[in-house]
Amino acid sequence: MTRKFLKNPMPQFSSDKKFNKTIQKIQRQKDKINTDVFKHNNLKQ
Question: Which domain of life is it from (predicted)?
Fold first, then answer.
């Protein structure tokens, strides 16, 4: 742990929350892309 973190923990926390939201969004987009690719492959056959 850095001294900066100890002195000021809250901004770190809020940025982590934002980061998690972004990760979730990316994950959802990936799922959607996978689903679309899967549908597309089924149509081709």
Answer: Bacteria
